[in-house]
Amino acid sequence: MNARLDHRNPLVFDTHELGRRPGALQRLTRSAPAPRDFGIAGVIGAPEGATVELDLRLESVMEGVLATGTARATVEGECVRCLEPLRQEVAADFQELFSYHDTDDRGRTRAEPDDDAEDDEDRLFIEDGLFDLEPVLRDAVVLALPMQPVCREDCGGLCSECGIRLDESPGHHHDAVDIRWAALQGLAETVKDGEKDNMGGADAGADEKQEK
Questions:
Q1: Residue ranges of the domains in the chain?
Q2: Are residues 46 and 138 in contact, defined by beta-carbon separation less than 8 angstroms?
Q3: In whole angstroms, what is the distance from residue 43 CA to residue 144 CA?
Q4: Is 127 exposed, middle or buried (0-12, 13-18, 19+ CB in 10 A)?
């Protein structure tokens, strides 16, 4: 059995005033605090308790209530290029049908057939005239958020060699060394060191001859 919805929750909406007459409309605006983990975990999202502005249109249809609207919030995260904190405004559009439970001619909820059980897992229902918008908002906001957020489109990121932020040092660069030349340079230094050793040995031999 589903837990009873709390009408005091700002993301829970009451449809009693709308009624069950198909075609009836209701427009609502509401500010609600963002729930916990409202976004893409570890990447970007609205902090818990941050204000989410809702513009909502409710329409009564035969099957239930069609909710259409937009959620706006300020989200926070980290730029994937320069790793600096960022804040962005996001607007997420959504539309969802909240269904009435099937009832008999006395208004009692009918037991759901077994072959419809899987379909019901994907449906959202109206409970005692109330519906919870939170799961719909979560899905909509996640789809509206960037998977790889950047502080701005032309962010230069970090230097792969030393990690300095490139936007703060536009002329920053490292001299590229061709690994083939680096190997030759190392070989040349080895030969040069060997020549020095040989010269040192020859000088010592000459000194010995002179002493004799």
A1: 12-158
A2: no
A3: 13
A4: middle
